[in-house]
């Protein structure tokens, strides 16, 4: 029997909350894969526990990697990862995870036997052709052009041309394993612009941090030299894209939401929220983190503790409109227990304390001191304050497409029209997000229109009703955002938020209760 729909809570008063967020899905799944391909045992600290991250961990285990959880806390799990020979004969369930379906097949092509892949019903509809063709061109044999498929090596690597306009993950997937290909790789993109460049930058940054030589000096061409991938001890940043609905709540309720542990520099797409929410009427500031109590029961409570924001530190910067943050010297790397390595380049992942000292969770301001102690003030609190008005936006979200559902939800509540452009590729995400957003906003009485590459959303009073999630975590949280202001919104399948944030409902409720 399907679970009953979730009555999205209406915010009776402005929210005032500090919301610590678990680790980034994108960083976690790259870190786990790179650790599995590395030249020795490594550690991935404060990794996300969620459906997508668990699917990645299971996939790597089935290919011969040993993953041992050591510390599980509010901030995530610390995985000790020991690479093994890549084993054939396994089956990989990708669920609906783009990072698993696009990142694991290149590694599987190095196995000593065939590996089969399948996933959720909708996963079979997500685009796979370009990366599977590329793997064929590099030497692999694959029996289909979409899920389900079976892949067999050997794969030697070399030069390949592909059209990655459908997903940046085609490029990231090839790059992540490429150093282990006998000939490395040269990827040349030909076609309309590749979306989500920050995610490709995240891939490159993490590869370089692991000592891999990546040449991205020519636009749309990426070269990776063959060589070892260094084992590391790394700490995952909080998921800034998952900050989106919580920060949106500040705008919708004229409240204040603080996210601790916001990196000063990052390749995460969610960092664009600072500018996007400012454009929509918020005041966005960074603030020096102040110590707050450690979360209670953190040894077995997966929910980071949400606190009221009265202890919010004094903002020390001007609103983030337009002015880029000063670049800061970033993290020096901590060698993994059994690997030596050189100094790090700026990384998407903050380097954690040495393996012998426990990592502090980034689930409280206290955690930031733990991270900054090792890295030199790499994070601040991000404070978003709603000003009582939500302004419509005209934005090209090509680079940060995964923020679209939250921005569309805000646009549906805005006082002026919005246009979202550059996100045609969202039709290949967890669902056709453009169709889904237009349908669900209109079902609540709104005025949303699909365009070829985005949405036009005009102000119109909304009413209650069912908001369908289409098994899409970000659709579900978009329904929650609208529900803050519109009585009677019921989100179908809120449990789908487990894809990247299993504690969403508890966190949302705690945010609204924190006063
Ligand atoms: O590499 C990644 O971790 C991701 C890349 C992006 O995919 P697309 O380029 O397919 O949009 C993004 O939307 C997705 O949520 C995560
Ligand atoms: C597009 C997304 O996920 P995936 O990694 O499955 O592509 C997303 O999280 O918005």
From TrEMBL:
Cellular localisation: Cytoplasm
Catalytic activity: 3-phosphoshikimate + phosphoenolpyruvate = 5-O-(1-carboxyvinyl)-3-phosphoshikimate + phosphate
GO molecular function terms attached to this record: 3-phosphoshikimate 1-carboxyvinyltransferase activity
Compositional bias ranges of the Low complexity kind: 295-326, 345-376
Residues the entry annotates as binding 3-phosphoshikimate: 25-26, 30, 167-169, 196, 402, 429
Biased composition range(s): Polar residues: 331-344
GO CC terms, sorted: cytoplasm
Enolpyruvate transferase domain boundaries: 13-287, 380-507
Purpose: Catalyzes the transfer of the enolpyruvyl moiety of phosphoenolpyruvate (PEP) to the 5-hydroxyl of shikimate-3-phosphate (S3P) to produce enolpyruvyl shikimate-3-phosphate and inorganic phosphate.
The protein, known as: 3-phosphoshikimate 1-carboxyvinyltransferase
């Amino acid at each position: 029997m399907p679970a009953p729909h979730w009555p999205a809570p209406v915010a009776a008063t402005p929210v005032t909350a500090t919301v610590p967020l678990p680790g980034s899905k994108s960083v976690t799944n790259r870190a786990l894969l790179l650790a599995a391909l590395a030249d020795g045992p490594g550690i991935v600290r404060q990794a996300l526990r969620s459906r997508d991250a668990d699917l990645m961990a299971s996939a790597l285990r089935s290919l011969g990697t040993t993953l041992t959880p050591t510390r599980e806390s509010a901030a995530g799990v610390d995985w000790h990862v020991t690479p093994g020979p890549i084993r054939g004969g396994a089956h990989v369930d990708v669920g609906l995870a783009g990072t698993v379906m696009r990142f694991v097949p290149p590694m599987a092509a190095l196995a000593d036997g065939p590996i089969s892949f399948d996933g959720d019903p909708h996963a079979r509809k997500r685009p796979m052709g370009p990366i599977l063709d590329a793997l064929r061109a590099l030497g692999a044999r694959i029996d289909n052009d979409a899920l389900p498929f079976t892949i067999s090596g050997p794969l030697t690597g070399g030069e390949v041309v592909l059209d990655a306009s459908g997903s940046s993950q085609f490029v990231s997937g090839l790059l992540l394993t490429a150093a282990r290909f006998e000939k490395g790789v040269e990827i040349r993109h030909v076609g309309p612009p590749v979306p989500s460049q920050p995610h490709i930058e995240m891939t490159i940054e993490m590869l370089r941090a692991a000592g891999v030589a990546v040449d991205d000096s020519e636009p749309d061409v990426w070269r990776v030299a063959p060589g070892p991938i260094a084992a590391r001890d790394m700490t995952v940043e909080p998921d800034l894209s998952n900050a989106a609905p919580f920060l949106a709540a500040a705008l919708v309720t004229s409240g204040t939401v603080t996210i601790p542990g916001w990196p000063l520099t990052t390749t995460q797409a969610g960092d664009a929220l600072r500018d996007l929410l400012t454009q929509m009427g918020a005041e966005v500031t960074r603030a020096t983190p102040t110590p707050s109590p450690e979360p209670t029961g953190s040894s077995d409570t997966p929910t980071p503790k949400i606190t009221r924001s009265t202890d919010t530190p004094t903002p020390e910067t001007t609103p983030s409109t337009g002015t880029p943050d000063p670049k800061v010297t970033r993290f020096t790397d901590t060698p993994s227990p059994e690997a030596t390595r050189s100094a790090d380049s700026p990384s998407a992942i903050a380097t954690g304390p040495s393996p012998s000292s426990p990592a502090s969770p980034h689930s409280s301001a206290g955690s930031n001191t733990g991270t900054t102690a090792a890295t030199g003030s790499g994070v601040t609190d991000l404070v978003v304050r709603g000003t009582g008005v939500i302004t419509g936006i005209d934005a090209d979200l090509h680079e940060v497409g995964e923020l679209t559902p939250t921005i569309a939800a805000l646009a549906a509540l805005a006082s002026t029209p919005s246009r979202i452009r550059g996100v045609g590729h969202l039709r290949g995400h967890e669902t056709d997000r453009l169709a889904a957003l237009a349908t669900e906003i209109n079902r609540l009485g709104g005025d949303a229109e699909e365009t070829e590459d985005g949405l036009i959303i005009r102000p119109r009073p909304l009413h209650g009703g069912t908001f369908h999630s289409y098994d899409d975590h970000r659709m579900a949280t978009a329904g929650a955002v609208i529900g803050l202001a519109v009585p009677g919104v019921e989100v179908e399948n809120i449990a789908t938020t487990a894809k990247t944030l299993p504690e969403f409902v508890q966190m949302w409720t705690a945010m609204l209760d924190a006063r």
